[in-house]
Design goal:
This protein is of the alpha/beta class. It is about 40% helix and about 20% strand. The chain has a 7-stranded mixed sheet with strand order 3-2-1-4-5-9-8, sandwiched between helices. Strands 6-7 form a two-stranded antiparallel ribbon. Helix 1 runs antiparallel to helix 2, helix 2 runs antiparallel to helix 3 and helix 3 packs antiparallel against helix 4.
């Protein structure tokens, strides 16, 4: 939930919502839902409150969770909370091909201040270093484009082997954190879900086929369908250039799935098909644990591919 949505604007409603959160922290989700309902009687237009009620009802196995998520979506049509994803997870809607851009942007805007500490130190996030192990042996790069650069964790791994380094992210707060590190020659906001024409990757004097390395470290799990992403990457990369990226491993099958974390996992066959269709050859793959989540390992696949000349 975004920081600016914690308050309903009603002091008594906020107090009841705080008590509800404490009950939820103690795993009493049914009581938390009941108290949250009381808060929403006082502030019925509070979208974030309805989303929170949906979560409490879902965890308490109360059937009306769907109603709460739908109300949140009605009040916040841009779906900054990801209510549509929640509806898909409980079987009330089809799994969307893409998450709402405002949800992803808000998620990382709110996460930026604690991103490095939380992800690396607490969740044992290891993608940047492991992906760099695949990339660095291939020598020096004239220009690299780091998609979903975040605070610059992967940029730090490849800065020493890159002449010009560009970084793009949907979150302006993440970009601000990356700028402080002074790793990138260019930083700009971009939305990979929009495709090449509207993504922001080819604005101003930015040419197509300008990079000999494009990276997407821990990015594609926030995109779902990648049918438009791989052609976009192809437009960025020069012939014989490298594309290094990671996905969460969906296991068997040929597609992608939405997980409880609200991240997508992708099957290797799906990725291999997209690489071939976009004109890439797979050079290496590595199956590995990429982070912890709720005390459990999250398994992923790292790919290194080359654009066929």
């Amino acid at each position: 939930m975004l920081p600016n949505q914690f308050s309903s604007g009603d002091v008594i409603a906020d107090r009841r919502a705080d008590y509800a959160r404490m009950l939820a922290d103690g795993q009493d989700f049914a009581a938390a839902a009941e108290l949250m309902e009381q808060a929403l009687e006082l502030s019925p237009a509070w979208a974030a409150g309805w989303f929170r009620l949906g979560e409490y009802r879902e965890k308490a196995d109360i059937a009306s969770a769907e109603d709460a998520y739908r109300r949140a979506l009605e009040l916040e049509p841009e779906d900054v909370f990801g209510a549509g994803l929640k509806l898909a997870l409980i079987g009330a809607e089809d799994v969307p091909d893409q998450p709402p851009s405002r949800y992803v942007e808000g998620l990382f805007d709110g996460y930026a201040d604690r991103f490095d500490t939380a992800l690396v130190e607490k969740l044992d996030y290891s993608v940047p270093g492991k992906l760099a192990e695949l990339v660095v042996p291939h020598g020096r790069f004239r220009r690299a484009v780091d998609l979903g650069c975040g605070t610059g964790l992967f940029g730090a791994e490849i800065r020493s082997v890159t002449d010009v380094l560009e970084g793009y992210d949907i979150s302006t707060n993440m970009l601000a954190k990356a700028e402080v590190k002074q790793l990138y020659d260019r930083l700009a906001q971009a939305d990979l879900s929009l495709g090449a024409d509207q993504s922001g990757l080819f604005a101003d004097d930015l040419e197509e086929h300008r990079a000999d390395l494009v990276s997407a470290a821990d990015v594609l799990m926030y995109l779902g369908s990648l049918e438009t992403v791989f052609p976009l990457v192809c437009a960025l990369i020069a012939p014989n250039g490298l594309f290094a990226f990671s996905v969460e491993d969906a296991g068997e099958g040929n597609g992608f799935v939405l997980r409880e974390s609200l991240r997508y996992a992708h099957a290797q066959d799906y990725i291999d098909g997209l690489l071939t269709a976009a004109g890439f050859e797979r050079l290496q793959e590595r199956r590995t644990v990429i982070r912890m989540d709720g005390g459990n390992p999250v398994h992923g696949i790292l790919f290194l591919s080359r654009k066929i000349a």
